[in-house]
Amino acid sequence: xxxxxxxPKWRKTHLTYRIMKxxxxxxxxxxxxxxxxALKVWExxxxxxxxxxYEGEADIMISFAVKEHGDFxxxxxxxxxxxHAYPPGPGFYGDIHFDDDEKWTEDTSGTNLxxxxxxxxxxSLGLFHSANTEALMHPVYKSFTDLTRFRLSQDDVNGIxxxxxxxxxxxxxxxxxxxxxxxxxxxPDKCDTALSFDAISTLxxxxxxxxxxxxxxxxxxxxxxxxxxxxxxxxxxxxxLDAAYEDNSRxxxxxxxxxxxxxxxxxxxxxxYPRGIHTLGFPPTINKIDAAVSDKEKKKTYxxxxxxxxxxxxNSQSMEQGFPRLIADDFxxxxxxxxxxxxxxxxxxxxxxxxxFEFDPNAKMVTHILKSNSWLxx
Amino acid sequence: AYPLSGAAKExxxxxxxxxQYLEKYYDLKTDMKQFVRRKDSNLIVKKIQEMQKFxxxxxxxxLDSDTLEVMHQPRCGVPDVGH
Lengths: 378, 83
Fold this sequence. Notes:
The complex is a heterodimer.
Chain A: E1 14-21, H1 28-43, E2 49-52, E3 60-65, E4 81-85, E5 96-99, E6 104-105, E7 111-112, H2 113-124, H3 154-164, E8 199-203, E9 206-211, E10 214-219, E11 226-229, H4 230-233, E12 243-247, E13 252-257, E14 260-265, E15 268-269, E16 275-276, E17 291-295, E18 300-305, E19 308-313, E20 318-319, E21 325-326, H5 327-330, E22 340-344, E23 347-352, E24 355-360, E25 365-371
Parallel strand pairs in A: 1-2, 1-3, 3-5, 6-7
Antiparallel strand pairs in A: 4-5, 8-9, 9-10, 10-11, 12-13, 13-14, 14-15, 14-16, 17-18, 18-19, 19-20, 19-21, 22-23, 23-24, 24-25
Chain B: H1 6-25, H2 42-54, H3 65-72, E1 75-76
């Protein structure tokens, strides 16, 4: 591996990124997902974390462009140069440009956006090209027949860790416990047809299903969910939670129990928490909430309490007027009380006891009713 | 000027491709361009060897088919040498 001349690197471990201009080859959420996946590749082997901005200047500004696009390197039409990126630093440094004369795809039928994005992010973080033909940072694009087999080479890991070191927990203290909690009598059984949940949230593309003192961790890449004690990852968090939701733009998951809320980013419980839920604007009569979900497109967060719900505006950071409203009025078919709710693939998934309601917010109707544990691969 | 034969024409276009590639990715100084037209110029031979070594090719110092094939492959636009 090699770094850029002078070894430029970011002097902080939490970086921001913003997708300024999208390609028309893919739906926006496919581009978002490919970039998130590419960021995760580097997150997993360093202390670095990333959060997405929707306005203003981010450390890594990402855009698609063709031919001459305002920097020293114009693109060259289909083929040849696919993209380029600049080493860490202010302004256009750290930025990534993709050649939109390529055919960008989620699979390998064209130029796979995830693979190229992972390579270009290596540059944005300070890696130059590697002469190791197996390395992600090798300059010549190599497609994979099976993308699930993609792994960083040791050369890539050595390179990025020469700049930022390993993830916070060193190998002898695995950050992510390698084996799940053995199923012990008295622990919840994921295939129990009566299974219900305390809270559910997304977290950086994965899903966390909280129950009692435990949670199942499900990602799109592994069929089998991992099963952990909450305290393994977040020792200071309570168990038997009430609600949880992810604020995507701030890369934070908010956790609720009773009249308190905590904020976690990755494994870190944020300073200044827990706080009282009334800081969000709830009336004093409310002492706990049942479930919460944040719509990442509309930047609105919904809080469900018995048969009613409130709506919070993430931009103005305030509870909206005209609430609470009846759940039955705006989410027809969803049975109160709501135990948990999360958003995925544009739907809201509501959980009440052992039943799960897939709700289409555009059609304003329940599109499927399933067992609550359908996500846990029983 | 007499018309170039097919082989000579192809060799010429390979030379152009190599020259652009080496300028873009291997820091071949463009101001040397008029003197590196001849394929046996020491500088361009060195740059071809440097490129072949970096890209994991056999270092033949010639624009052989493997080398030409790799130069046609899609790649990252960031240089391999120089900054």
